[in-house]
From TrEMBL:
Residues 18-328 form the Enoyl reductase (ER) domain. This is NAD(P)H-quinone oxidoreductase. Keywords: NADP, Oxidoreductase. PANTHER family: OS02G0805600 PROTEIN (PTHR48106:SF8), QUINONE OXIDOREDUCTASE PIG3-RELATED (PTHR48106). Pfam families: ADH_N, ADH_zinc_N. SMART domains: PKS_ER. InterPro entries: ADH-like_C, ADH-like_N, ER, GroES-like_sf, NAD(P)-bd_dom_sf, Quinone_OxRdtase_PIG3.
Length: 331
């Protein structure tokens, strides 16, 4: 028998903008699902770089979202709001959250949740939503990646990178990845990259040019990478920017963008409409979940921390020593 949710729950809050230590345990009211929303009893919550940006005061949650961090989770449906048709109490789901994943219960629109893939543990399923939504919308929809194209992803060993390598490979692209150590490069090769580039000892621009240039680059670094990405693109190539770890401001000669017909674009997932996210979820169910079912894509797991050790999880992520995803065990 499934018990009704309690009134209060344990969560980790951002007590003040700052380093990992500002994440503190707190008791808060369990959210009540509104029209079209589900309440999830969180088993595991994924940790993402944007959580660290939010914690540092650099990435404010949308006004309607929970102020608690946490953009993805897996668990069981604990309650449904009015008008919910897709899910029932007890269903195992993983979901993209507007926030609030670092807690025992979290709410989201019912069509931002996906079934836990057959045979996959909740621990792994918690790591799917944020990277799958981001990679699908930026690499496939915005970037228009096609089979046979040369695809370069920076930060290949990150949560985003490990998903991008596998998805691009499954779509028939030739995959190139950069990473900051030989161990990380090996992980990229193991996931299906044809060439992994240790950016500390190799020049990705020269290597990509020797291949004829990248048709599509997915970049989270920015800064000095912007002009170098332009050089590394093939004619008619596309650059999709999803973050600026080295900063967003740089001097760039746009003449090359014009004469070689390049496209520079980008997006962030969190501020997009519920409808846009629901469309991505539908695409993922139709096109990516079957790839997971046949073993072509799996989350790469780095480490697990109890919810109350979220500060240690953030410290690990910000040390950049990890390969793949970090999760918080909640229940
Ligand atoms: N636009 C969106 O909607 C969206 C959604 C989710 C995530 N993101 C962004 O995507 C990126 C990856 O997210 P994630 O959660 O997968 O993070 P993650 O696992 O922590 O990956 C970040 C990786 O970037 C590399 N890196 C860190 N600082 C760097 C620097 N200054 N210069 C070069 N490389 C650096 C590190 O690998 P190396 O050791 O190889 O340098 C690190 O593993 C983050 O920047 C995040 O903010 C964007």
């Amino acid at each position: 028998m499934t018990l009704p949710p309690p009134h209060v729950m344990q969560a980790m809050e951002i007590s003040a903008p700052g380093g990992p230590e500002v994440l503190k345990p707190v008791q808060v009211t369990v959210p009540v699902p509104g029209h079209g929303q589900i309440l999830i009893r969180v088993a595991y919550a994924g940790v993402n770089r944007p959580d660290a940006l939010q914690r540092a005061g650099l990435y404010a949650p949308p006004p309607t979202a929970s102020p608690l961090p946490g953009l993805e989770a897996a668990g069981h449906v604990a309650a449904v709001g009015p008008g919910v048709t897709r899910w029932q109490v007890g269903d195992a789901v993983c979901a993209l959250l507007p926030g609030g994943g670092y807690a025992e219960y979290a709410i989201c629109p019912e069509d931002h949740a996906l079934p836990v893939p057959e045979g996959m543990a909740l621990r792994e399923a918690a790591c799917l939503p944020e990277t799958c939504f981001t990679v699908w919308s930026n690499v496939v929809l915005r970037g228009g990646l096609k089979a046979g194209e040369r695809f370069l992803v920076h930060g290949g060993s990150s949560g985003i990178g490990t998903t991008a390598i596998q998805l691009a490979r499954a779509l028939g692209a030739r995959v190139f990845a950069t990473a900051g150590s030989d161990d990380k490069c090996k992980a990229c090769l193991d996931l299906g990259a044809e060439r992994a580039i240790n950016y500390r000892s190799e020049d990705f621009v020269a290597l990509m040019k020797a291949e004829g240039g990248a048709n599509l680059i997915l970049d989270m670094v920015g800064g000095s990478y912007l002009p170098r990405n332009v050089k590394a693109l093939a004619d008619d190539g596309r650059l999709v920017q999803i973050a600026f770890l080295q900063g967003p401001k740089v001097e760039l000669n746009f003449a090359e963008v014009m004469t070689r017909r390049l496209t520079i674009t980008g997006s962030t997932l969190r501020p997009q409409s519920d409808l846009a996210k629901a469309r991505y979820a539908r695409d993922l169910a139709e096109q990516v979940w079957p790839l997971i079912a046949k073993g072509a894509l799996r989350p790469v797991m780095d480490s697990e921390f109890p919810l109350t050790e979220a500060p240690a999880a953030h410290a690990r992520m910000e040390s950049s020593g990890h390969i793949g995803k970090i999760v918080l065990k909640v229940a």
